Amino acid sequence: MDSPASSTAKPPINWPAAIMFPVTTLPVLTELPWYLATHEVSAARWVWAFVLLWLNGLGITAGYHRLWAHRTYSAHPALKWFLALFGGMAVQNSILIWASMHRVHHKHVDHVDHDPYSAKRGFWYSHMGWMLRNYPSSQLDYANAKDLLADKVVMFQHRHYNWFAFGSNILIPVALGLAYGDVWSFVLIAGFLRLVVNHHVTFFINSLAHMWGRQPYTTTNTARDNDFLALLTYGEGYHNYHHLFQMDYRNGIRWWHFDPTKWLIAACSWVGLSKDLKRVPNFKIQRAMLQAQFERAREKLAHINSHPTRLTELQQLLEAEWQQFSATVAEWSKLQSEKIDAAKLQMSERVHEAQHQLQERWEASDMRHRLIALERTLEQALEMQRQRVALLRMQMATA
Ligand SMILES: [Zn+2]
Ligand SMILES: [Zn+2]
Prior knowledge:
two-stranded antiparallel ribbon; 16 helices; 1% strand; globular; binds zinc ion
């Protein structure tokens, strides 16, 4: 539920952020255009700026966001250190602060007083404004981050955050500049420009990804799916899906969705750097999409001015679809408890005698195959129904 912002008086300025943003942005707006107009700049600067941009972006999305804030997979210590270093270089605060606040964002999404970057307070506030003052909604409370307080990598990075953030931003561009024999162009392009670009593209996830795009999975919050934003945000543009299924390591769930963060996490699992990748069952995704379709159809039906007979006919058709949907969902829930029973049976096998064990294992695996086949049938039933409800909505549009 939304409530008006509790206080009209402006909170005090958050000086570290209020100084850091102008200090990093000014050279990009003034010195850099002059430098590019008056100097030859070789491709190496741009390539390194791009590489660092992506390392910082993925440090935030694969590390801060999907690993630490949401625990969508577990990572080998080597991968954790890598993500903590390059995520820290993005200068978006320590993992502990970022992830704890992000969990609050998900818990209180859109609430004007409790969501730290509520999109209901407008573009500027959700993009950057929330960082420039010490708003009460940004007050730190690690009660929601006990797992992170026990994570050695997270706590080391938190204690030495200045080194991770500022040390890396000075040392890496300067070292590259020394290697190529020109420090200043590297500081400008791979330093300032890369940092400012990465700031804004990741801030888009809090601002634009809550304002611009479609809502295929849920209309209960402002989060949107947007393919164009996914291109800029290392795959985080599928934000409508993410807000409904935050435990999934994927944000773009189809193979054609541009989600390089998902590809990185999956590739890491092939070489043992990540494991326990969590995915939401396809049925639940289909169920959410259909539910959103039903909501839209009902809304449409409430607002059309059609002949009463036609209106009743459409209402009955929609009601029949809803009945069938409820029946499929009930059948699926029953199937899930059967699956749990089958798993328990397999567990208990271990304590039985050898011959008995073999017999039961065969039965259990046979049962498992049957359950999987049934589950597929139910998924397909929902997919077909989604097409029918879409057709029904088209009929409503012309009614
Ligand atoms: Zn969000
Ligand atoms: Zn999230």
